[in-house]
Design goal:
This protein is an alpha/beta fold and 223 residues long. 45% of the residues lie in helices and 17% in strands. The chain contains nine helices and nine strands. It is elongated, with a radius of gyration of 21 Å.
Length: 223
């Protein structure tokens, strides 16, 4: 919990005592206010073949977050896990996307979500990228690996993260149901299942990624 000095606000007892002692006992009132810091974001983007129509837009969304929100980490998932945070911090969106694409060796390949979430947690999650963060997974839930492993790693992620948001490009479409084996395995560990098939849905996602909105969404899902 951090605070910053202000001219008005909450009386800061420690700062007041220090200032008073420095002036030989002459009262010197000092005030402070709490500082709000956004939670870290951890983006896990499925870049397998079934996500080819959406991956570019999701990378653009991640590019904005990586540049504007401190502590944002971005990874791609397919048959392996690749960290692309550094590439997406480039101010030029075209250069950032090109460098990210060059860094990803499994673009439009297979999908092993459980393996890649485990790799993320083993290498990065325990070190702080997931702990207390808002974890956002962009995927349609098609899993070619072990769904039991995916379920286990999603439970692990849920224990570490502040909230888990899953963005499925099909969830906003008429008749959608989380029927794929991967989605069924992951669903119990998801706080918010969000649509991601239009620009408007990504705009709503940007508004959602605040502590207040995520709390409301999670309470609504629990009810």
């Amino acid at each position: 919990r951090r605070s910053t000095p202000t001219r008005y606000g909450r009386l800061d007892g420690a700062a007041t005592a220090r200032a008073t002692l420095a002036r030989a006992g002459e009262p010197q009132l000092r005030y402070s206010r709490p500082v709000d810091r956004p939670r870290r974001l951890a983006f896990l983007l499925d870049v397998s073949g079934s996500m080819a129509a959406y991956a570019d837009n999701y990378l653009r969304f991640a590019h904005v977050a990586a540049r504007r929100r401190p502590g944002t980490e971005v990874f791609t998932m397919g048959t392996r896990l690749t960290r692309v945070t550094r590439q997406l911090r480039d101010p030029s969106v075209d250069d950032a996307l090109r460098d990210a694409a060059d860094a990803v060796p499994d673009w439009s390949g297979g999908t092993r979500l459980g393996d890649q979430i485990r790799a993320f947690l083993d290498r990065w999650g325990q070190r702080g990228a997931a702990r207390g963060a808002v974890a956002v997974i962009f995927s349609d839930g098609w899993e070619r690996g072990d769904t039991a492993l995916l379920r286990e790693q999603m439970q692990r992620l849920h224990r570490l993260a502040h909230r888990v948001v899953w963005v499925n490009p099909h969830s906003g479409k008429s008749g959608f149901a989380p029927s794929t084996a991967g989605m069924r395995a992951a669903l119990p560990s998801i706080d918010v299942l969000h649509e991601g098939h239009t620009l408007q849905s990504l705009t709503r996602l940007g508004a959602l990624l605040s502590d207040r909105q995520l709390t409301i969404a999670r309470e609504a899902r629990s009810a």
